Amino acid sequence: MTTMQMSPLPTMSFRASVQQPCALDLCVETPSVTADDLNETVLEVFSKHRDLTSLPVTEDNRPIGLISRSIFLSQMSKPYHKELYGRKSCIAFMDKDPLVVDAGMDIESLTFKAVDYGEKALADGFIITRDGKLAGVGHGLQLMRIVADIQAARNRQVTHSIEYASVIQRSMLRTSRETLQSVLPDADLVWEPRDIVGGDFYHFASQNAGWFGAVADCTGHGVPGAFMTLIANSSLGQAIEQLGADNPSQLLGQVNRGIKQVLGQNNGQDATPGSDDGMDAAFFWFNSAERTLLFAGAKSTLFVLHPGEEGVEMIDGDRKGVGYVDSDLDYRWTNRLVQLRAGSLVFVTTDGLIDQIGGSKAIAFGKRRIREVLLANRHQPSRTINQAMLDTFGEWQGQQKRRDDLTFFCFRIQES
User: How far, in Å, CA of 359 to CA of 393, rounded?
Assistant: First the structure.
């Protein structure tokens, strides 16, 4: 004779609001049979309950097995199986080792157990108990839905946190943006993180004799890259306060030491550094009176287009990054002096522009295309040049995935 085991169905939204969901949230009331019941009784139960995917078998109200609807009906539909098995105990088609979980088990643990049990736990469901006695059954589809809901909620929470981190990162860069606007009438900067936050940053500072600029690409993008920008930008700000802004090489060295100290990097000798991270960067100081640009680059290139000249001059920095485990604590970057004149155009970018894959052959954007855009728009304002660069970049990227953060800076020397 069949028995009916009832379990209350608590409201999911209420339970989720006060505590993490558990197996009880998936518990569905279900009929059950005992080992004394016959297969013909099981057939009656499945016929009466069309939505029943599995049927628990109990002994003293404690589960001892689970009968899968699909397996049972496929066996009983074979010729003469009703005659052969109808009057036999239902344990003939019972899974003797179903997944059995306590009602209080958290969803994460339940998910791992269900995966370990394999397809049958997801297809046929699992038994839920309270104090060892049958409470009901749970279904694989319900479990997948609640896991998806939990993951979606977590993703929303993480996204909200990252969006607020973006506010902080943009606030950190705001002063530099304002400085840039105040000292350079014809200048434009593009800063586009690949994700909500990014590993690129810029820094501008104005002093009596001129102004300092930096465009840098820290290791990584997204949240890890953003953390690196906080470390590097803070180190740069302290270096400018201590040393002034007119010696880019010296500032690169100071930031290198700052990054290595914060991250526990010790001249490549530390076997367990905090991280093997750092940055590529272009630091430059413009002397307003002399119209000279002092440039020091760490794996960065300066593009210069002088008025009346047909080609774009490329000035490469040192092939040594800032920070990283294998770098020298006291490495000295080289200052390179560039004489500019009224109308000279200067462009600098992180490798997010240069390394982007695109075009019909899926190759890197490269430096040649940068020079082509600069030459084609040489008489335009910096903002127009940068927009042309963005448009060309977008066409080049096409359907390819954005590889990295994107930052580039363009400015033109004005008449005194």
Answer: 10
